[in-house]
Every structure is written in structure tokens, then in C-alpha cells.
């Protein structure tokens, strides 16, 4: 049986909680913070403009050799301007649970992402995680940090980012 892995990222940005929530809770903005080499494309027709519990969002991504993969997530929990959670319903992972937390801090917002994921194919999934999945997820979050700073500015009052794997 393969293991459940986790990644936690923390980034502080110099904008208001309202601005952060307004941007990050809109599915159409995902493309702006996802590396273009992943070929990320929202394909759902009726996913809505703002986040709500029960929302289904369908994508295609090309994480391996440019081969398109279908991915469907559901927004399972939303607490306005505090957090939302998306969970994979169909896609490349055996399990994907992604928490997005937002907290106002002096001079900005601290965003924390916590992802728990499991790969298919038992021990082969563990090998794939070691070979490339973990580093690919790190690259995606590194890109997200850079894209967020480019859009909203660089945090000046302390550590700007943190990534932890579990």
C-alpha cells in the first residue's frame, strides 16, 4: 500500500484579506498561478465564478510528457475569508485533499496551503513520488509563490515563504 504524503506552504503577501480572498476563491484565477508547462485548462462549463460548497471544477493538466489528464475537484468546505477545501473526485491521484487558509496579519495576509495526497499503484506510487511527484509539487508551489509576488508585491515584514513536506 502506498503512503499518504503531505505538503504545507505558507506565504505572506502585502494585501488585504478581502483582496486575497477575492482572487484566490475564484476558480478562473487558478491559471494565473499555475505553471504554463502543465497545460492547465478549466474545461467545466458550469463551475460558477465564485467558490461555494458543492462546486465541481473540471480541468485538464499535462504533468507527464505533455499527456493530458482529466481532473475533477469538488469544493467541500468554505468559510468566507478564512478557508476553503477542495478534494479530487476523479484524476491522477488516489487521494487529494487541499486546504487553503487565509489569515489577516499586520500589513497583509498569511496564506497557508496544506495538501494531503496519495498516489495510485501501491509501492510504484511511492517510487513515483520519490522520483518526480514531490519535486513537481514543490515546483508548482514555488511558481505560485513567484506569481503571487508578481501580482501582489513582495512581503517586507518577515519571512515571505515556507515549504514543508511530510
Walkthrough of the structure:
This protein is an alpha+beta fold. The chain has helices spanning 17-24, 123-152; strands spanning 4-13, 41-42, 56-64, 67-79, 83-90, 95-105, 108-118, 161-165. An eight-stranded antiparallel beta sheet has the order 2-3-4-5-6-7-1-8, with helices on one face. The protein starts with a strand and ends with a strand. The mean pLDDT is 91.
Structural descriptors:
alpha+beta; 166 residues; 2 helices; eight-stranded antiparallel beta sheet
Topology:
Elements: E1 4-13, H1 17-24, E2 41-42, E3 56-64, E4 67-79, E5 83-90, E6 95-105, E7 108-118, H2 123-152, E8 161-165
Antiparallel strand pairs: 1-7, 1-8, 2-3, 3-4, 4-5, 5-6, 6-7
The biggest beta sheet is recorded as: 8 strands, antiparallel
| Rg of Cα set | 16 Å
E-strand count: 8
In the sheet with the most strands, the strands line up as: 2-3-4-5-6-7-1-8
Global shape: globular
Low-confidence stretches: none
Secondary structure: helix percent? 10-25%
| N-to-C series of helices and strands | EHEEEEEEHE
Oligomer classification: single chain
Strand content is 35-45%
**Tally of individual helices:** 2
Rounded average pLDDT: 91
Content-based structural category? alpha+beta
Span of the ends, CA to CA: 17 Å
